[in-house]
Every structure is written in structure tokens, then in C-alpha cells.
Write a structure and sequence with these properties.
The structure is a homodimer of 606-residue chains.
Chain A lengths: L7 H11 L2 H6 L9 H19 L3 H7 L2 E3 L2 E3 L4 H10 L18 H14 L1 H20 L2 H13 L2 E6 L15 E4 L5 E11 L8 E8 L12 E6 L1 E3 L5 E4 L2 E6 L10 E14 L5 H6 L2 H29 L23 H36 L3 H36 L11 H8 L9 H15 L4 H15 L8 H27 L2 H36 L5 H18 L2 H9 L4 H4 L11
Parallel strand pairs in A: 3-6
Antiparallel strand pairs in A: 1-2, 4-5, 5-11, 6-7, 7-11, 8-9, 10-11
Helix pairs in contact in A: 1-11, 3-6, 6-7, 6-10, 6-11, 7-8, 10-11, 10-12, 10-13, 11-12, 11-17, 11-18, 12-13, 12-14, 12-17, 14-17, 15-16, 16-17, 17-18, 17-19
């Protein structure tokens, strides 16, 4: 019963009116490939595929789930056909170099693609999504030979890839990884160990699967400094570069999960599997972390995707379902009751979803431009350029991942709530969105890890607060331009106040942390959410400014489109931004509130 | 993998130290039945049953779900055996009169029972739970003959009951009910229509099911004033009072749901089913509403139950799972990493759960004493007494239902989050708690309905704000006693400030509502959550005061028990109460933020 239409008008508003992607593309080596016409064609093609091929198999895929039989994983009905169409359309390689069969378009288009296909069918989109991680690793760290061997097939999509990090005893704390890699005489390695939670670890969509695996060399130092990265193909490529001998990696089982049940989450057993070192020995974790930004933004997109899907499906129900009369007077006198969209509380939930979807998309698109530059650094083998943009992106990553995925859960919840009891029934699909959205705050680093990365690492350790000073200065400069603008001043005054507060809070936490390191963990979640709400407020103010401008000077859209942007911004500032108050107060609470209780006194159940 | 221990020490702390239930019971007609020894015995018996019989079939029941075959519903393995044990123990009737086979204990013990069995296995507990609604209806509105015919079996538990309200076109807005009741010559009626979402509508646990059904008489006025209440047994009782002829009510299907899959949610088709009017014609909705308070508090208990269960199962995992080192220094030097319970952010989540569970329980127990008085009014046929206490309870009901169920969802989410990726895997059970908890904000009136009931009906319409003035005065009087107490003053100052704010906000909303009725709906969710947080703050302050007193003057528990109460109160005031700020700001936002957008401008997807 769920439906999806790619929000192309909102997407183009951001690409053309808010961020001017065409101007940005002019600065990129591969930017000329992304002229306006090509971008339109790509967007339309992805939208068609998502709406007509992926959406129809989303609910049925969840119901059927993946099948596991003696090491073989079969994806639900229609998944393979959809994947074949995806490969035929060349969609896997749109942002990879032409020498490997890609279209060499900017990476931002790949992120925009992820949103559209992910909104239509998140679990399906994980299959090509995981390949991306594998491709990125090979692009940046593979030898010429490794690239030649694997990238053609992966970029084409006829082979898929995975990232094998987690083991039963550790997820976040990869220093505990135990998988072993024993060097062989021919420069290969034999890998043994168990990896769990491997998305797309085994499936029937492609003829081969290339695993990127974290493991330890025999002489490796303990902890995170002794982890290396290996390529372990399911089938070893033969001399012709085609599928050869079966390797010693097998799927032991698939997980039964709350949601994303059509995405195979695998236990992979490596039993003297042949592997090849990629990158430098013992530097695997560092290499891994260079992809964290893109992988985590990819998960941030999941938050956006589920927000958008919940909104798109709550809206028609709210227009259709009738209950009671509206407090301000009868709205549909000829009907037995008013449509529930007339009730302010229902509008509140819809507007939260709308504000989160369009605000979140703006945040992602802003970051996507950094991803373009970063990816250009990789393509040119220019480490300095890569690192410069990777660093810049590093501030946004934990916010996009941590904050937007939390909003995805909240939006899915509102979607169910608007349906009343029907929101709990499988047939309608709203509960599926809620179940699928739930994973996003757990994988690719929990919200707690994002929060610690933001406050502990990026804000306090690496920049001593400078990153917040810089970011808020840029907001305040922007606000300054509108200080006397009668339309915009309500937004910019509120934002300016928040910028000042954000700095003050950062300084307070910095001072507190000097004496009490635990305050960083204690405050981190409030700091993350606070940062997210303010950042999204800035994006809404910018969108409102563009909308006012278009209303005055004419735009490609009807006036109602821009008016709705302004009204959503107003709603966001009136009803959502106040949430910052609680987080501001909460984050400076003494860490003792959390640390004082002795472990054995949390419960008295005996 | 889930486990449960009834938190008897916390329960007794509330019953004995905080609220002095023994003193309260002395004022009740049936209070002498509830001497300390009996209460202990009852609690222990329920705890044993919940821990050993219900918990072991909770996860398996979810996995198996209910079976539907041609009108017959079969509950999962073990459900019937557990139900038989429940009947044998006499647990269904503990708070009903001895003349019908009950134990005639105060109604509060029934609520406490609901928490314990509901925490162990919420969906199972819905079978006897729905019977309670049916019993209460018969107790208050049944004729002597109707009581005699049905109450013995229902109180015993060998027959079960339901409440049949919702139809496909309406849930909340019962004025739209279409089911028809045609009078017959023998004083019976023939009912026809379709009811949906009927919990326990059909099952194999009992030999008969007694449906209480809302339907319209042929000459009934339109809307809510034309609804009557009927008794429709699955099998008509024969002359001996045993199961006789099959009636024309049948189960058309059961719903496939996000959770509570072992609780049968039925479509019931009434096809000229024989029914008997209960109460006055066309006064069915009013009769129904007299049970809303208890039914809704019962759902509030679900919020508490899922909070408690999520907490009890997150705690051992947080002690067991090891990841990283704690920011304030290594905590488990002999281990590969520190247990995650040492991280302040993990403690934050555990303490939220703990604060919500123990605070929520305190709020329920407070209200349970009103339920005792109310139920005494029913037993004595004293309408005035019933209404007096029903009115008092009416202020607490939307908060207990609306607020505690939202907290249940949040607590279950933290439970999953503490498990990281394992929180998403069925085997661990944390995801089941989250799926089951999700229904609680939708049935028995959504959170939006509770919010409207609280702000629109109870606070503004019925009392013009007096109810808030009275409640906050009582808090402030209590605070006054501790104003100079060095331990307590941090709590009472914060509470006093909030009480003042709560009144100011109420007055502001009242003034706004004079010109703009829609503000009531627009502000209602923020007002509900604000009220809940302040009320829970008051309960935590009271528990802290008792704990300080026991620490000084000696109590039945070890000092650590009381210290933990105080530490949890401190956590609540430091980290949770700040949430009121955002709600305070948000609730007085202009309703235009929600109402301004034209319906057709919510999305531009064509």
C-alpha cells in the first residue's frame, strides 16, 4: 500500500536555487559531465527506476525476507530482476571513472541517487550500497593490478562487495578484532575468523562478492594499531578475470531482524580463505576511517529516506481519513467528519516530517559538495586534497549520521501515529518504515559514537572549539546580511542567539572537561542533538531566504511552492527549534548525575 | 533471552514508604482483606506466575503468533496452559466481589497485578485484561440478572470478555458507528455490523467470550447521542448458565501487526447476532466513558511495563558487553575493554529507563488509590461516590496514558540502543519490546486524543485552569515544607519554579484560546508532555524525600537502595526535567505555524 514519488521539485530547488550545483560542478574535473541536461536525465532515470521497479517490491520483500539454505542466500522475489535492471542501466557506476566503465559524474549525484533508491526500498539499496564501500577502498588503496582485477566488475555491478568489520565480541571497538591473516609464499594470505552483521555478505544478485576484511597479521601489535585490510573474493578471479575457484569464505547463517529483512545480514566464516593485503600492513583501521565519512553520510541518508517515505504516505491518509470536527470550526460540512489533516495536532506531525525531510536533504546536499571534492582527490591520487575535504566533511558527518537517523525514527513514529491503529498493521506499511528506520541509529556507529566523535574528537580534541566558532561565525555573517530584512529577521535573530549560545556551551564544556573527562560522554548526546537542530535551523533560514527572493523576483516554481518553504521554516523555528533549550540545559548538567551510581545499585531485583 | 524479575522491593517502597497503602486500605470497605500479609502473598504469587509461567512464553509467543483458520483463532503454544493456571490461581477475580467468586481485594491490587503480568508478557496479559473491561461494564450497568448470568464465569476467568467499539470508518470518532441493533419481541436485539481491532475478539483460551458492543437502535439520533451498549455472547448461555447455542458473531480475520502478535486482534462480523441491551438506550457512549479512566490507566501501565522490561534487560548487557576505555580512566584493567556501563552516555540511557520506570510506577500507584475509591462506589451502587473519584482520576488519566506510553517507546528504544546492532536482532528480544511498546500510544485513544482530553477538556473547558492551580498548589505546599532542607531544596526550588510556569502557561493558553480555538490542538502535545515531566518530577522529589528520611531514620532496605533513589531523582532533575523548556516554548507558538499551510501545498510531487 506504500507509494513513492521522487521529490524532484524539492531536489531541484536545492540543486539549482539554494546551492547552485551547476556553479559548483564547474570547479570539478568531472563537472562538465554534469551539465543541467545530463543531471535532469539522471534524476529522472533514477526516479523512474525507484518508483516503478523498487517501490513495488519493498513491502513484499519485507514479508518474504531472505532465505537461507545451507550457505546459500536467496533474496526475495523480484530483487534479482531489479538488480539486473540496475546493472543494465549503468546505475552502479555513475560516479566512478570511465576507465572502469563508470560515467564519471560527480560523487554528489551518487548520494542523490542513494536517497531516491533508498527511499523507495532501503533494504534493496543496501546491496549496491555496500559495493560502494568496497569500490571506494579499492579506488584509494588498491594497487594498479587490484584495481584492474576488481573495479571493472564492481563498477559495472556484475560483482558486488562488502565491508567485513564486526566480530561477535566487538563492533565499535575494532581493536578487539581477532580474525587472523597468515602470509603465504605467493604474497597472498590465508584468513580465518568469524565476522558478523555483514550486510550483503551472501546473496544471489551477482556472480561474485568481493569482501573487504579487517584482520590481524601474525606479528601485529595489539589493539587498533595491528589491524590490516584484505581483499577476500567469494570466488577467486581466474586468469581471464572471470569467476574462478570457490574461496574459503562461507555464510553460516543470516540474522532474523526487526526490519530490513530483505537485506541479508550474514555471519561469514573465513576458513583459510585466500586474501590479498590492500594498503599498508597494520594501517587497516586508518584506511577504514577514510571511508567513515561517506559511509556514515550514507546512513544519514537513510534517516532522510525514511522521513520522506513516512511523510509521503502519511499525507494522503491525513487527507482521506475523517474524524471529529476541527476546533476552529467545521471544515468539510458536507462530510460526516473533517479530514484529520485539518486538526492542528495532525498538521504538527506532518510538518515535523516535512521540515525534517526537506531540512535534512538540504544538510546532505551541502555536504555532498565536499564529497565531490574529496572524491576528486581520490581520483587524482592527491592525498592532500582528499584529506582537506575529508577534514571539512568530518564536522558534518556525525551530525548527519547521528542527528538525521534519530529524526528518521521520530518521523516514522509520527507516520504511524497519524494512521492511528492502522499505523500498527502490516498491510498499510507504516510500521515497516518504523522497523526499517530503527537500524539507522545502530549501525555504522551508534548515535552515542557519533555524539562522542562530534563533541570529543572533532570539537574538543581536534579543534579546541574552533570548529564551532568557525561554523557559527559563518552563520552569523550570513545572518548579518538579513538583520534588517523584515521577512527574514525573525529567523536570523533566533539563529544569532543560538550561535552565541552554541559557542558559550562549547566553552563551558571545554572548561568542565579539563577537570572531568567524563562530562564529554555525559554531554555528548545533548550536544549532538543541539548541534543538529541549530544546523537544520540555518538550512531552513537559507531556504526561506531563497524562497522570499523567488517570490519577489520570480522562480521556476509556482508561488505556492515557495510559500510552503517559508511556512515550513516558520513552523520549524516556532515548534522544533525550542527543543534546543532542553538540550542546552541538559548538556551542562554535572557528569556526576550519571557517574555517581554504583554499578550494583542500578537495580534491586533479588 | 529476555528475563524478568518482578521489582518487589521497588513496589513495596511505594506501597509502604511513599504512599502508605495500609493506611489507605483502612478507609476502604474491602480494605481489611488487604492486610500486609495478604498483600505480600498476592504480590509474591503474581510475581512467581509472571516470572515462571508468562515470561518463558513471551518471545516464543511472538515468534509463533496467533493462528487463524476459518474463523478459529489458536493462540501460541503455552498460552492456554498459562491461562488455565491463571484461572486456577483465582487471579482474574482478585479485585471483584466475593459473591461472584472474587477475592474482594482493593482495585489497586489489580492494577499492580496488571503491571507484573504485563511486564512479563504484555500480549498474553491482554486476554484477561480485556475481560476486565467487560466485567466493569457489567458491574456498573448490568441488571441483577445480567450480573448473575455472566459475572461468575467472567470473574472466575472461564469465560472471557471484549470491548467492541472500533469500526473500519471510525476509531476515536465513535459518533460514526454504524452497527445496528434491531429490537426483537423477547426484549433481545439482533446486531449486525463489522467491528475491527477487537483485541481478544476470538481465541481458544476460554469456553465462551462475552462481547460488549456499541451499536445503534433503529430510532437512534445521529452521532454520539445515538449509541447503545449491548451484551453479545459468542455462545448464548443456556438455562443452566453454561455454554449453549452459537451466536451470530464470527471472526473474519486477524490482523498482522508490528508487534503484540500473540494477542489476537480480530475483525468481528455480527450477523443478526443476539444481543441484550445493557444500560440505557442511546447512553452507551457515556457508559463507555466511565471506563475510559481505568482502561487508559491500564494502557499507561503498558508504558511502565515496557520501560521496566527494557531496563531489566539492558542492564545486564551493559554490565557484560565490553567496548573501549572509559574517558575518565580505565575501569576494568584486567579486561580487554571496559564494560559499557562505565560510559556516561550508556549510564544516561539506563538512568532514563530507571527514572521512567520507577517514576511512572509512582504515578500509577498514586492514581491506583483513586481507582480503589471509584471501584468502591461501583460496588456500593453509589453513583455520586463513583463520579467524585472518577472526576479526580480524570486529571491523571490522559497524563498516565499519553505520557507514560510515550516514555515506554523511548525506553524500549534506549534498550535497543544499549545493545548496539544486537538490539535489532530478534534473538535478544530487545526489538520485541520496542515493537510491542509501539502500540500503546495508538490504542485506547492516541497520544493526540489524550493531549486534547487533558488540555481541551480537563484543563480549559471543565475547570478553566483550576485543575492546574489546585494541583500545583498542592505541590507547592509540599515543597514549602522542604524549602530550607539542605538535601531537598535543589528539588523543591526547581519544582516550585515549574509550578509557577505551568500556571502561567495555562493562563496564556486560556487567553490565546479565546480568540483562537485551534491553539488548543496546536499546543496540546507540548502541554501533555510538559505536564507529564513536571508530575514525574514531583513524584521523584517525593521519593527522594522518603529516601532521605529512611537513610536518616532507618528503613527496611539497605542504605544503597535509598541512595540509588536519591541519585535517580538527581539524574531526573538534571537531565530529564530540562525537556520542559522546549515544551514550554513550543506550546505557546502561534497556531498559524500549523494552520497556515494550504492542504494542497504540503507536498509538490507531481
Amino acid at each position: 500500500m506504500l507509494t513513492y514519488k521522487a521529490p524532484l521539485r524539492d531536489i531541484k530547488f536545492l540543486m539549482n536555487d539554494v546551492f547552485d550545483f551547476q556553479k559548483h560542478y564547474k570547479d570539478l574535473d568531472n563537472g562538465e559531465n554534469a551539465d543541467a541536461e545530463t543531471v535532469d536525465m539522471i534524476l529522472q532515470g533514477i526516479a523512474d527506476f525507484a518508483e516503478n521497479v523498487l517501490m513495488p517490491i519493498y513491502q513484499s520483500g519485507d514479508e518474504e525476507g531472505c532465505h537461507f539454505d545451507n550457505g546459500v542466500v536467496t533474496t526475495p522475489k523480484g530483487f534479482k530482476e531489479a538488480y539486473n535492471q540496475f546493472v543494465e542501466g549503468g546505475w552502479q557506476g555513475i560516479s566512478y571513472p570511465e576507465e572502469y566503465g563508470g560515467m564519471n559524474l560527480p560523487m554528489s549525484l551518487n548520494l542523490i541517487k542513494s536517497e531516491i533508491i533508498g527511499t523507495a526500498n532501503w533494504p534493496w539499496s543496501m546491496y549496491p550500497g555496500l559495493s560502494t564501500g568496497c569500490i571506494n577502498t579499492l579506488m584509494q588503496y588498491g594497487t594498479a593490478e587490484q584495481k584492474e582485477t576488481y573495479l571493472h566488475k564492481l563498477v559495472e555491478g556484475s560483482w558486488a562487495g562488502t565491508m567485513c568489520l564486526t566480530e561477535p565480541q566487538c563492533g565499535t571497538d575494532l581493536g578487539q578484532v581477532k580474525s587472523k591473516a597468515i602470509p603465504q609464499e605467493d604474497d597472498s594470505y590465508k584468513l580465518s575468523g568469524t565476522k558478523i552483521f555483514i550486510s550483503s555478505g551472501e546473496h544471489d544478485l551477482t556472480e561474485n562478492i568481493i569482501h573487504i576484511v579487517l584482520a590481524r597479521l601474525p606479528d601485529a601489535p595489539e589493539g587498533t594499531r595491528g589491524i590490516s585490510l584484505f581483499i577476500v573474493p567469494k570466488f577467486l578471479p581466474n586468469a581471464e578475470g572471470e569467476v574462478g575457484e570457490r574461496n574459503g569464505v562461507s555464510c553460516g547463517s543470516i540474522e532474523h531482524k526487526m526490519g530490513i529483512s530483505s537485506s541479508a545480514t550474514c555471519v561469514l566464516n573465513f576458513d583459510e580463505a585466500v586474501g590479498y593485503l590492500i594498503g599498508e600492513p597494520n594501517k587497516g583501521l586508518k584506511a577504514m576511517f577514510t571511508f567513515m565519512n561517506t559511509a556514515r553520510i550514507g546512513t544519514g541518508i537513510e534517516g532522510l529516506a525514511h522521513t520522506e517515505l513516512a511523510f509521503q504516505n502519511a499525507l494522503p491518509y491525513a487527507k482521506d481519513r475523517r474524524s471529529m470536527r476541527t476546533l476552529s470550526g467545521v471544515k468539510d460540512p458536507e462530510k460526516v467528519a473533517d479530514a484529520i489533516i485539518h486538526h492542528a495536532d495532525v498538521r504538527r506531525m506532518l510538518l515535523i516530517q516535512k521540515a525534517f525531510a526537506e531540512g535534512g536533504r538540504s544538510m546532505i546536499y551541502h555536504a555532498a559538495r565536499y564529497a565531490d571534492k574529496m572524491s576528486q582527490g581520490v581520483a587524482n591520487g592527491d592525498d592532500a586534497e582528499f584529506e582537506k575535504w575529508d577534514d571539512k566533511l568530518g564536522f558534518y558527518t556525525p551530525i548527519l549520521k547521528g542527528f538525521l537517523t534519530e529524526l528518521g525514527i521520530e518521523s516514522a513514529k509520527h507516520g504511524q501515529q497519524i494512521y492511528g491503529g492502522h499505523g500498527y498493521i502490516k498491510e498499510w506499511g507504516m510500521e515497516l518504515i518504523a522497523r526499517d528506520a530503527r537500524i539507522a541509529t545502530m549501525y555504522e556507529g551508534t548515535t552515542g559514537i557519533q555524539a562522542l566523535d562530534l563533541l570529543g574528537r572533532k570539537v574538543l580534541l581536534q579543534s579546541k572549539g574552533k570548529i564551532i566558532r568557525d561554523y557559527t561565525s559563518s552563520i552569523m555573517r550570513w545572518c548579518g546580511e538579513y538583520a534588517l530584512d523584515k521577512d527574514m529577521r525573525k529567523f536570523v535573530w533566533a539563529l544569532t542567539k543560538l550561535c552565541a549560545e552554541w559557542n558559550t556551551l562549547t566553552v563551558r564544556l571545554m572548561l568542565m572537561a579539563r577537570k572531568d573527562r567524563e562530562i564529554i560522554s555525559a554531554a555528548s548526546d545533548d550536544f549532538l542533538m543541539y548541534s543538529g537542530y541549530v544546523m537544520m535551523g540555518y538550512h531552513w533560514a537559507r531556504m526561506a531566504a531563497v524562497a522570499y527572493d523567488k517570490l519577489e523576483n520570480g522562480g521556476t516554481e509556482a508561488p505556492e511552492f515557495y510559500t510552503a518553504k517559508i511556512q515550513t521554516a516558520e513552523f520549524y523555528f516556532d515548534k522544533i527549534l525550542p527543543r534546543t533549550s532542553g538540550h542546552a540545559e541538559g548538556m551542562v548538567a554535572p557528569s556526576e548525575s550519571m557517574t555517581a551510581m554504583a554499578i550494583e545499585n542500578f537495580a534491586f531485583l533479588d
